[in-house]
Amino acid sequence: MGSAVLRAAHMQEDAPPWVLEDRLSERLLDRRSLGEVRAEIARWAPEVRAAFRLAHAVRSRLAEDIAMEGLAVGRHDYVLLGAGLDTFAWRHPRAGLFRIWEIDHPATQRWKRRALAERQLGEPANVRFVPVDLAALSLGAIDTPVAATWNWLGVTMYLERPVTEQVLQVIAQRDIGTTLVVNFLLADEETDDFTRAFQATAAEVVSREGEPVRAAYTRSGCVDLLARAGFSSISLFDAVALKERYFPHRDDLRLPDSTLVCLARV
Asked: What are the DSSP E strand ranges found in the chain?
């Protein structure tokens, strides 16, 4: 819910042009939930709040851009692992060119589909919902496309490292051309004071909600993790690289170096 509200807040509180235009995400929340999330976000320092909404918008934009690039080489499957309240299938003008796989915990997915029905948003014919509890069933036991763009964002920091390693290995066993966009929380020693303040706020919130941070990585550790899983090409997008790609001349937008977004290919 927080991620959905933050993506929407980027358009509501930051000046255009926007990195991501998601007017739909927070509509999936009922009035009470939306009020609670907004009240929580309002408690944060203004600079932390701004950094949060930008971080959530940028990471989604990168994944969607990589998916679009895949169309040119025939990669028409887009897998959202831990889809949550992602709205790509309902708002992106080219979403209909993909077969979209939303993989999520059964309870979360039921909740989302109920929200879609209540708001009369429907379920596009090209979206395949895959309910699975990965704590009980390995990703390798699930039917997934042989070569796709995978979006795995905002998840690894809440998993023990062995679980993350196992998931990465399954994805890396897919066919050549398989592409993954994944992010990892950066270890304290690789961040600055502003980013550590940002991370402290995030850690407090998720711990209070019963989903504590379980893993952080160094940049070299991320590369090693992906290489050992079996990926042959790895590119890193830190705050500097993302700013240069999406808003190089925007001094009003400050992105924290809290997570490292990685692009890995088989």
From this structure: 77-81, 99-104, 127-131, 149-152, 179-185, 233-237, 259-265
